[in-house]
């Protein structure tokens, strides 16, 4: 019996080895073939498409992408074909790029050859004049206005608004039954408040804010639905209707500001005013639709992104108690400097007194990589390293792949904020994108996280209910159920057993 078992074992092991060897050989052959075809193409003065498969007619590889974890879809192809390969998904031929050099080419050095591209239903929902969808002079003009408004001077002045929004959000959370709420939904309340303060200033009446919030959430619910515009009760149709309302609300606000006389467009202290004052070289102002699409576009870009990252930061701090202690010590020093929280936080304190919290934010951005990739479209035939990227093809830089590659980040699946004490290799860490469309709101997002963490660890403690490492997509990745958690005043400290890597053992989470 033992003989048969060991013979069977040897047989199975040999079979597995043969299969692995076969797979490795096939991979090598595929790469070598791609190299040879490329070299032959170059020698004859013509370019070849990158290696990869376009899959079935019409369907391409869409079924393969959606029938498995997308990580596996990309990882298996990257292994087989290298860091640049072709595929065909969601009706579009596509070149996937996963090296910092290729991402830089697409997003920075030859960005003029790759225009941003989104499905028309999404463009319609956000507003077709929003800067994300444009290239060239119009994009630059609006971007300058938005970036100027999200620069250090504006953010310095915004710290009290962020602090007030954080304090009221945490009071709301604390006031839930047993202090229980989804962290993600709570963080969305915060990012909406901060978004509104940034875009519309301090003086927005409560009823207008409520109307804005109600319609905004209807739009958001329809944003990721299949677009069926002719049927009035679908989420998509309701979202389109709510989007029209949002446009009307903004139009009223703009009219009121203009009627304020004296060219009063909301003073210097909000983004709406900045957009209303924005002029091109010939002195022409933006149209009301252009202002509205951009103001709402920024609100959209700022909300779920920041709320997802905030949720991850809270999860990681909860999961690593030693780290939480270190962050708390750093934040207590600020709290004491501010006379036990009686004085307001300052911009300078967020910049200089919170290095550990900053490292935690960077590592959370890397681990969660909430924007896993982006899309561009080649505006003409483009040559890249001997390959042809044909005009009209989509190009997809894979940020998450680079963030999780052992080539650029040692032991990439380990949560280790200290790795950011040394700057990562250029172009390997792009949570906010890169180039002309890189995120102009990154410093505001970081400010919100720093202020939230400060208030949270100096005044409260929180307990995750049923801790888990599962992830849900909303569409950004967030911990399961949005990280259901209980918020309590910090009279006692949460304890709990730890595992070897300093991580809290799941059973002892609270
Ligand atoms: C942690 C939170 C955030 C993350 C991870 C994030 C990430 C990104 C990324 C990766 C891009 C580039 C997309 C591309 O190249 O296709 C982007 C663009 C953008 N983000 Fe953010 N973002 C965040 C928060 C914010 C905030 C708070 C704001 C505004 C207040 C904002 C406004 C924008 C805008 C307007 C763009 C488009 C820029 C352009 O096309 O020129 N984002 N963001």
UniProtKB/TrEMBL annotation:
Cofactor(s) recorded in Swiss-Prot or TrEMBL: heme
UniProt key word Glycoprotein: no
Enzyme class: oxidoreductase
Pathway: Plant hormone degradation; abscisic acid degradation
Protein location: Membrane
UniProt catalytic activity: 2-cis-(+)-abscisate + reduced [NADPH--hemoprotein reductase] + O2 = (+)-8'-hydroxyabscisate + oxidized [NADPH--hemoprotein reductase] + H2O + H(+)
GO annotation, cellular component aspect: membrane
Family annotation (CDD domains): CYP90-like
Keyword list, A-Z: Heme, Iron, Membrane, Metal-binding, Monooxygenase, Oxidoreductase, Transmembrane, Transmembrane helix
Topology of this chain in the membrane: Single-pass membrane protein
Biological function: Involved in the oxidative degradation of abscisic acid.
Name used for this protein in its record: (+)-abscisic acid 8'-hydroxylase
